[in-house]
Specification:
Layout: H1 12-26, H2 28-31, E1 68-71, E2 77-81, H3 96-106, H4 118-131, H5 141-154, H6 158-165, H7 169-186, H8 188-198, H9 208-216, H10 225-234, H11 247-263, H12 269-276, H13 299-311, H14 319-328, E3 331-335, H15 339-352, E4 360-366, E5 373-378, E6 406-407, H16 413-422, E7 430-431, E8 436-438, E9 443-444, E10 450-451, E11 458-460, E12 470-471, H17 472-478, H18 481-491, H19 493-502, E13 525-526, H20 528-539, E14 543-545, E15 550-557, E16 560-564, E17 571-573, H21 577-593, E18 607-612, E19 618-625, E20 628-635, E21 644-648, E22 651-655, H22 662-674, E23 702-703, E24 731-734, E25 760-763, E26 768-769
Parallel strand pairs: 1-3, 23-26, 24-25
Antiparallel strand pairs: 1-2, 3-15, 4-5, 4-20, 6-13, 7-12, 8-11, 9-10, 14-17, 15-16, 18-19, 19-20, 21-22
Helix pairs in contact: 1-4, 3-10, 3-11, 5-6, 5-7, 5-8, 10-11, 11-12, 13-14, 15-22, 16-18, 16-19, 16-21, 17-21
Length: 774
């Protein structure tokens, strides 16, 4: 009977000794013969197995997880992300000193024994029996490699990691069987290469290449003797022998490795002694993991790329499959991010708004015709501290953004105009556009029902001076609210919904826009990326292209490279070329003479629209050139800050407008992004002048723009003036009650007689002459 411990029964060490000693000495393991049921040895425990032969024949070795590199469009690294920092290298790319050091300290008989080192086991059993515990292990490098494969397969699942590392006979049996298989299939050099690539060296470094970079900022092939000994010594206990946190213990361990190498003849005693005298000479590279470390303020774009990968079925049928590929890493992801554009966006935001301000800004630039996202930035940096955030204000909730987006204000109005033009309304379409009115009712919806203003809700224009009638060009330039609500009432809600569907304009949470007239005023939350991409369709003459962030992906599996399929932009016609060209012309007017004058670019064709929302909680500018579209939002993510009496970026604002805060951000961002580049020219259309030439003299004295007033008898007045009053509109004097016309376009700043640009109509009776408007 074996000698028992005072506690009764065999100790775990004695049990292991009996099992391993009997099985190995009998040759059962090496021969692959079935072992007796472990229960017969009194070894039944959680994690054990019934029979050696019942284990699967082949060890499944998952590809080693490696770091993923995210690059910009020019191949520069934006960020490195990984679940485990590892770069797999071949044995020829690992210093010979490193190879010898790891063998010397972990398994000095590695090249002499098979999968199991019988002498090592007996030595360890004897040593452990003398100490009464487990003071020395007997696992070969091959067995350690197998154990690391189990850990690698467990990933970041704590339960699986515990199962892979638990001290049970069952796990040892698995290691033994698979070690035999590995020895037969791979051979010593490949086993050593695999081991050096899989094992953990502390400080988040997996594999010798990552360890060399972490501790010495060099490649594994360049490690010298003392550096190799240090790394080899860490493996036994990365926390105890951490050279950064405990250099004294690490030095002692390094010197043990050096002495062992001398004993084995790997180096001379003189070489080992000299190496022992050297300082650790660490040159630490701090871990740079994750999008938080991204360059050029591209952290949010980096996270967007990750969200795209995890959310797009092109990378795997289920999110679990996609996450497995992402965590495995080894990816080189080339993105659409254009360095010049990204730098310009970040600099512009930085110049106009501080991260400590009560409000934030977000900007996104997109290339018309391709859907490529060229830049994405915001004023609140990516992070977890004060004035930082994890929320990407530029995108929808499915890609890490706001749950609802942000109300867009008047930047929505071009979509209504495009819908009306597609329905055949002329660009000279006129509505009464009073300063204040109830929402027109009823309004037709897509499902055949009608929207009815049961609450008698009202709306008004920005100022009391804004009252019609207006034509489309002037209404767009002045951003007249009542005009566009009347337009929706005229054409119905369904054409507007069809247009926004074609432009993929959805709310921040992905929901379709509601069928209510208030959408004309930008009442619903939409993301800057959605707005920039939609406006890009105007620039590309009606072709909408879905946004993309990834150009190509290659994946390294072992030392092999393969290409992965990536999402492609899908382009489709959202409106006719004529409609898009008309919108371009209208939005040029916004910049030339409307609300967006302060934001306009002076050296190239550009168009855009301002927008603000109720209580000044949001301000927007969305604009474009033929080759670049951009959206800028300024506001509070919580939607609780009203931008009155506020300082933003060191500048005081009595109240914020789309033109005075997001407008300059857009202007500077676009200017920098386009510097040195040809931005092309718009296709535009001729729009009749918005100066309304009042109607021909009609008995009621309604004069036209040439100043032709009429009297009760329909007698026309004189149409004097240069070109019949073309520039300033006519005035009709309709006798005792005749009313003169309003001013048309601004009088040119040259000294000329007033009547040179002004028609004169003289009508009798009750003539009402109406001139043109700006």
């Amino acid at each position: 009977m074996p000698k028992k411990r005072s506690g009764g029964g065999l100790s775990p060490t004695q049990q292991a000794a009996k099992f391993l000693g009997v099985s190995v000495l009998a040759g059962a393991v090496l021969a692959g013969i079935a072992l007796p049921a472990v229960g017969a040895l009194g070894l039944v425990a959680k994690g054990s197995v019934e029979s050696f032969d019942e284990l699967p024949a082949n060890l499944k070795t998952p590809p080693l997880s490696q770091r993923t590199s995210i690059l910009d469009a020019e191949g520069n690294q934006i960020a490195s992300v990984y679940s485990r920092d590892r770069t797999v290298v071949q044995l020829k790319s690992i210093s010979p000193y490193m190879q010898k050091a790891i063998v010397a300290i972990e398994d000095s008989r590695f090249y002499e024994h098979g999968a199991v080192d019988l002498k090592g086991i007996l030595r360890a059993l004897n040593k452990n029996a003398q100490s009464g515990g487990v003071s020395q292990g007997a696992s070969t490098l091959t067995q350690q490699y197998v154990k690391n494969v189990f850990i690698e397969e467990a990933g970041d699942d704590p339960t699986k990691v515990a199962q892979a590392t638990q001290q049970t006979i069952g796990r040892k049996i698995r290691e033994l069987k698979y070690a035999i298989q590995v020895e037969e299939e791979l051979g010593k050099k490949k086993i050593l290469e695999n081991y050096l690539n899989i094992t953990f060296f502390g400080q988040q470094a997996y594999g010798v290449e990552a360890a060399a970079q972490r501790y010495f900022s060099k490649h594994a092939k360049d490690l010298n003797l003392q550096e190799s000994a240090l790394l080899a010594g860490i493996v036994q206990s990365p926390s105890v022998y951490d050279p950064i946190n405990d250099p004294k213990q690490a030095t002692l361990r390094r010197n043990i490795v050096l002495e062992r190498m001398a004993e084995l003849g790997d180096v001379s005693q003189a070489e080992a002694d000299a190496a022992k005298e050297t300082p650790l000479a660490l040159k630490v590279t701090q871990p740079q993991n994750g999008c938080i470390t991204a360059t050029k303020g591209a952290s949010f774009f980096c996270k967007y790329v990750e969200k795209v990968f995890l959310g797009d079925p092109v990378f795997g049928r289920t999110r679990e499959e996609r996450a497995k590929i992402w965590n495995q890493g080894g990816l080189t992801i080339r993105t659409t991010l254009e360095p010049q554009a990204q730098e310009s966006v970040q600099e512009s935001i930085k110049d106009h708004i501080y991260k400590s301000d009560k409000v934030a800004a977000a900007a996104t630039l997109v290339e018309p015709g391709t859907g490529k996202i060229l830049a994405m930035g915001q004023s609140k940096p990516y992070g977890y501290g004060k004035n930082e955030t994890e929320i990407n204000y530029s995108v929808g909730s499915d890609r890490g953004g706001s749950n609802f987006g942000f109300p867009t204000g008047s930047t929505f109005k071009p979509f209504v105009a495009a819908a009306a033009l597609e329905q055949g309304r002329p660009p000279t379409q006129e509505y009464s556009s009073p300063y204040q009115m109830e929402y027109p009712s009823p309004v037709q919806t897509c499902d055949g029902k009608q929207w009815v203003n049961t609450d008698r809700a009202r709306l008004e224009n920005e100022s009391e001076s804004e009252h019609g009638p207006y034509r489309l060009g002037e209404a767009m330039a002045k951003s007249v609210n009542t005009y566009f609500v009347q337009m929706i009432s005229d054409i119905g809600l369904c054409p507007v919904m069809k247009m926004t569907d074609a432009l993929h304009v959805v709310q921040g949470n992905g929901d379709r826009l509601p069928q209510v007239p208030a959408i004309a005023l930008g009442s619903k939350g939409i993301s800057p990326l959605t707005m920039a991409t939609a406006y890009a369709a105007f620039a590309s003459r009606g072709m909408y292209c879905t946004p993309i962030a990834i150009e190509s992906i290659t994946q390294k599996v072992g030392d092999q490279q393969k290409s992965l399929e990536v999402p492609k932009s899908t382009c489709s016609r959202a409106m006719s070329e004529k409609t898009a060209d008309t919108i371009n012309t209208l939005l040029q007017g916004v910049i030339d003479s409307g609300t967006g004058q302060a934001a306009g670019l002076k050296d190239r064709d550009n168009a855009g629209k301002t927008g603000t929302t109720d209580s000044r909680k949001n301000a927007w500018f969305v604009g474009y050139t033929p080759k670049l579209s951009g959206a800028v939002w300024v506001g509070s993510a919580s939607q609780k800050v009203e931008m009155f009496d506020i300082t933003i970026g060191g500048r005081y604002h009595a109240q914020v407008y789309g033109a005075d805060t997001p407008g300059p951000i857009w202007k500077d961002a676009m200017s920098g992004a386009l510097e040195g580049k040809d931005s092309g020219e718009f296709h535009t259309v001729h729009l009749p002048s918005d100066k309304k030439d009042g109607g021909e003299g009609d008995g009621d004295g309604n004069g036209d723009g040439n100043g032709d007033g009429g009297d009760d008898n329909g007698n026309n007045g004189d149409g004097g003036g240069f070109i019949g009053g073309f520039l300033n509109g006519g005035t009709a004097n309709g006798g005792t009650t005749g009313n003169g016309g309003d001013n048309g376009l601004p009088t040119p700043t040259i000294s000329l007689p007033d009547n040179l640009f002004q028609g004169q109509g003289n009508g009798g009776g009750h003539g009402n002459g109406t001139g043109g408007r700006r």
